[in-house]
Design goal:
The complex is a heterodimer of chains A (84) and B (226).
Chain A (H helix, E strand, L loop, with lengths): L1 E10 L6 H9 L15 E8 L3 H16 L5 E9 L2
Antiparallel strand pairs in A: 1-2, 1-3
Chain B lengths: L3 E6 L6 H10 L3 E6 L10 E4 L20 H10 L4 E4 L1 H8 L6 E3 L7 E9 L15 E8 L3 E3 L2 H9 L3 E5 L10 E5 L5 E4 L17 H13 L4
Classes of the chains: A alpha+beta (84), B alpha/beta (226).
Chain lengths: 84, 226
């Protein structure tokens, strides 16, 4: 089976986010008020062949842990959907 | 015999010839190594130079750590061989797990290209064995992702084991504890964001890198990793 995968890579809670804080500081100057807690991450989409969702998830977790995220400062959130 | 210092060139490296120039200016022999090699050609020390290895795609160092030569670099380091990562090379060494922590985007999202003052915090490393503690060195920095970060436990360990090798006098990037460079538990792997290879000649505006590259040559001569 083919599964569609979305990986969201996020900075761990407590890790400073220079992009997020720069964006947050810019917002009031642009007239956007009331926005806080800005955090910037990245989203990575791909598809993967596997016999079932559990196998797909195991492979994706491995890829995330060793390559797509840096576990020292980042977490990854994985969403898997059976492809059409 | 002149110590042989291997400088690893990745696609996207851009400080490999500066590194070789500095090594040869100080009496060593520079050996250009290619990232796709699987051995180190018998060198006495290794420099992972600055630049943008593999375009810095995904994260700086994230792809470079999988280059074939990194296996040999890891074995050389494990055997006690002197390994220095400068700027992008520091990022590669953290991604490869040869040094703890990670390098984040600079605070304020500023690319920092300037002469920086750094203080030598320990003489017990392969990059500072000729330089007294407390020395202030003027060494250029040139980076966007040099904001050193690690968890509180790792920081406490680095401090307790005297493994913070360099601190910025004026923190240019938000690094935790003003860290500009650290070493491994074995003290033979050093990573730093400033570029000592660009501070080895009067024409470059500073010769304060001479003591650092000289220390590396001295460690290489000692043949720790041979």
């Amino acid at each position: 089976m083919t599964f569609d995968v979305l990986v969201e890579v996020r900075l761990k809670a407590g890790v400073a986010d220079p992009q997020g804080s720069t964006i947050e500081r810019s917002l009031p100057a642009l007239g956007f008020d009331g926005i806080g807690g800005v955090r910037v991450g990245k989203s990575i989409r791909f598809h993967i062949d596997a016999v079932d969702e559990a196998e797909a998830r195991a492979h994706v977790e491995d890829v995330c842990g060793r390559f797509l995220s840096n576990p020292v400062i980042e977490d990854s959130v994985i969403t898997i959907v059976a492809g059409a | 015999m002149a110590p042989r210092v291997g400088v690893v060139r990745f696609p996207g490296s851009n400080c490999e010839f500066d590194s070789i120039e500095a090594v040869e200016h100080l009496g060593g022999t520079g050996v250009l190594l290619w990232h796709d090699d699987t051995d180190l050609s018998g060198v006495d020390a290794v420099i992972i130079p600055g630049g943008f290895a593999h375009g810095d795609y995904l994260r700086p160092g994230a792809i470079a750590r999988f280059s074939p030569i990194m296996g040999a670099v890891g074995r050389f380091a494990a055997a006690g061989g002197p390994v220095v990562g400068i700027c992008n090379g520091f990022q590669v060494l953290t991604e490869a797990g040869l040094l703890p922590g990670a390098l984040q985007k600079n605070n304020g999202l500023k690319f920092r290209c300037a002469m920086a003052e750094i203080q030598i915090e320990t003489s017990d490393s392969i990059l500072t064995n000729q330089v007294p503690v407390g020395t202030i060195a003027r060494i250029p920095i040139n980076h966007f992702e040099g904001n050193y970060t690690c968890d509180a436990e790792t920081l406490a360990e680095l401090q307790a084991e005297d493994r913070i090798v360099f601190r910025y006098v004026n923190n240019p990037n938000g690094s935790v504890d003003h860290i500009a460079g650290i070493c491994s538990a074995g003290r033979n792997v050093v990573g730093l964001m400033p570029h000592p290879e660009r501070a080895c000649h009067e024409l470059l505006g500073s010769t304060d890198g001479v003591g650092l590259i000289g220390s590396l040559l001295s460690a290489a001569r000692a043949g720790v990793g041979a």
